[in-house]
Amino acid sequence: MKTTAELKAEAKEALKGRWGQAVLLNLIPTLLGIAVLFFVFLSGMIGYLLHGSGDGMISSISDYQQNYSNGAGANLVSSIVSALFMSGISWTYLDLLRGEKTEIEPFKDAFRGFQGVFIVGVILLALLTNIFSTLWALLLIIPGIVKTYSYSQSYFLYYDQIKQTGEKPKVLETITASRRLMSGHKGRLFWLDITFIGWHILALITLGIGYLWLTPYITTTKAAFYKELSQA
Q1: What is the pLDDT of residues 15-60, one digit of tens each?
Q2: Which residues of 128-139 are buried (b: 16+ CB within 10 A; e: fewer)?
Q3: What is the pTM (predicted TM-score) of this model?
Q4: Alpha-helix residue ranges (DSSP H) falling in 99-152
Q5: Which own/partner pairs from 9-13 qualify as long-range (CB within 8 Å, at least 24 positions apart)?
């Protein structure tokens, strides 16, 4: 099995001469995400100004419950939209690593997860993996984290199954396949994430701008991790 350093080197080689395209590919969902957050914030402010904060204990509890419900719903929608973007972006880097794609097409590749053949499966994967991970986390935080790593290859497996057979796999079977594929390898992926901590600190120092370069680097490295795992 390749070391973390070898996976990172493979990722950098795949991105060589394509960093500009990779940054633009990452920029599109980032800008859309900012726009969505601004819209949610603006809607909340308008709702507050129109209806006020209410009077009395009952109104306060009602407002709290409504805000909590709205927050949970917004987080779920955000997770699904993020999955749609990141799955397509990850598939693009996987194709680059495999030599099946030579150029990144930012305005097209950013929306690969939204294509008809993929979109329903990606949404269901995002819903179920979030639900399963949350339920495990209710027991203890660590089991929730472990399960998140267990399900981490689901989107890659779903993509490969459709590409190789032309048929959509069952979502639950895809999650199970990811769990089996990651058996004995969750620690490797966890360590890979740990090695990027220094880069995350540098990106934060730049007020987040550094993530335009860091995110493609991390995403490509994880695509290289899956490529090696799927070939084993």
Answers
A1: 999 999 999 998 888 777 677 667 766 766 676 676 555 554 444 4
A2: bbbebbeebbee
A3: 0.84
A4: 106-109, 116-139, 141-150
A5: 10/97, 10/221, 10/224, 11/93, 11/97, 11/217, 11/220, 11/221, 11/223, 11/224, 12/217
Residues 35-40: contacts with CB under 8 Å, at least 24 apart? 36/78, 36/81, 40/74
pLDDT digits (tens, 9 = 90+) for 56-92: 444 444 444 444 445 555 677 778 888 999 999 999 9
Cα–Cα distance for residue pair 114/77, rounded to 1 Å: 14
Query: What is d(CA 62, CA 51) in angstroms, rounded to the nearest whole number?
Result: 13
CA distance 86 to 96: 15
Tokens matching residue 50 = 């129109």
